[in-house]
Every structure is written in C-alpha cells, then in structure tokens.
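[Meeting: bench + compute handoff]

Bench side (C.D.) handed over the final construct sequence. Compute side (W.E.) agreed to return the predicted structure before the next meeting so the bench team could plan truncations. Sequence as handed over:
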Amino acid sequence: MKHLAHILYLLLCIVYAHFSFGLFPEWNSNVIIPSIPLLAVGAWLFGTSGGLLIMLYLISIGFALSQVFGDQYIYFMDRATGTVIYFAITYLFGNLKKQYEAIRATNRLLDHRVAERDAQLLAQTKQLLDTAEKTRVDRGQELHDGVGQQLTGVQLLCSSLAYQLEHEGSAQSAIAYRLSITTGKAHNHIRRIARTLFPVRIAQVGLMSALTELAACFNEIRPAHILVKELSDTSSMPETTALQLYRICQESCTYFINQCNATQLEVTLNTSSKNYILRVAHNGTMPDKNMKTSILGLIQYRLKQINGKQIRPRTITERSVIFYEVPKKQLQGVA
C-alpha cells in the first residue's frame, strides 16, 4: 500500500508538470498554487529530505515556466516568495511526519508493554486463583477429616454416655441425648461447609450432583432457598469446565444473597448444540450495572478461562435472571 502511494504521487508530479505548461496561458503564475499542497503531501510521504528534492523539482518547473512564457509572466516576484513558502512547507510537514512516526513508535512500545503487563497480570491472577483453590481444598479437607472426625468422636461419646446414664436411671441422660443431637447437627454443618470448599463429587458424578449439594449447603447455612434443575444431560461436561461453573454458581448465589437481598434462587443447567448454559434466577433486586466488586470481576475471569460469556441480566416473571454460556469445544491448554 505504501509503495502504491509513492507511485501515485510520482505520477501526480508528472501530471502537475503537464498541467502547469498546458494551463499557463490562461492561469499565468496561478498554476504554481497547486504545487503547494503537492509539496506538502510529498514532505509527508518522503520526509524532509524527500521534500527538499520535490521542492527543487517544483522550483525547476517554475523556472522553466518563466523562461518559456517570459513575455506573459506577470509576477516574477512569485519565484522568490514561492521558494520561501516551499521551504516553510517542507520543514513543517517533514517535521510533522517525523513527530507522527515518533508517536506511532511510542504507541507501539506502550502497547507492547501493556500486553506484557496484561500477560503478567493474567499469570499472577491464575496463580492466585490456583493457590486459593488449593487452599480451599486443604481447608475443606481439614474440616472434614480433622474437625469432622473429632465431632464424630464426641457424638459417639455423647451417645455412649446417654445410653449409660439412661441404663443407670440418671435424670441427666436427657441432657446427654440433647448434647449428642446438637453435636450431630454441628457435624453435619461442618460437613456441608467442607463440601462447598472442595466439591470432590464433580469428577465422579458430575456438576449437577455438586450443585445439588451446594444448594443443600446454602439452604442450611444461608438465609435463602436454592432450587437446582437440570433440563438436559450435562454429564459429558469436562471436569475443568464443571469446576469453573460450580464456582461461578457459588459466587453468583453468594452475591445475589448478600448484595441483592435474594431469598429464593433457581439454578438451571441446560445444553444447546454448541453451549453449556448455566441460568441463575433470583427474587432480589437487579444488580447495579455500574457496581464493580471483586466477586463480579472474579466471575468474569472464570468465564474467560473457559471461553464463556455472560448474557446481560434481565427480568423474567418478576425475577432477575442471568445466563452464563460456555462453548462445548474448549481450547487446548485452558485451565
């Protein structure tokens, strides 16, 4: 494209020479006026050095006109003023081109550095999320195997104590039974919290079972009721995609309960010919479009990792609904 512009410009210079000699009898020295924008374009295309050569070419044309049409030439002083104007235009547009190229080079350098910083930021974000995911799994495992096992032992001791007290006819047996029941509830509570931290069932039985258990945990430990439905089979979903959608659902429900005051939520899993679709509906207020929170940014990052997208929230039957779509064919190397 650049070479084509240069060729067209050279042809235009030749045309200008024919134009000057052909129209001089009618226009006289006014034929020099079109040479001013012609020189400006040349200085822009070829820089100051190229502009000086073009200026010599135009001055030579003006000199030839004054010799060929000497008896008709009206304003001979145009030759002197024209030269000054030529120098000014060459210097101005040559420097403008130089500054323009410098700005373009600076912009390319800045874009390169921004791309490097973005890549570093994405890598650090991925590392932080991987670390956070590992920490969740470790803490969940500690709750399940550590505190959970200890509570199991306490529950067994309470049951044994209650049985022994009842066998001895002690009135304290009822208290021991209540302690056993309370310990059992605490154990179930801990177990559910641990399951939200590490959904181990995703790899074995799929996303639907993990979401069902997540809903049961929310129903027990949060002031909201969550219903989970599967409209079509999603058992073929890759484990990586399932884990990210699980976290997206978990974080969306947390956001809607805490920020939108939702008390009833409905999570729906569906598939189309090309996408997996996660739909979350709630009876809370519509999220503020201008509100930027860390949890929303995290959801967008998770979607990006699996090439997914968020469909704009809208209201259906007096409920706010949001859709997350993930293509079935994932790029290799997506984590």
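W.E. noted at the follow-up: DSSP finds eight helices and five strands in the chain. C.D. will use this when planning the next construct.
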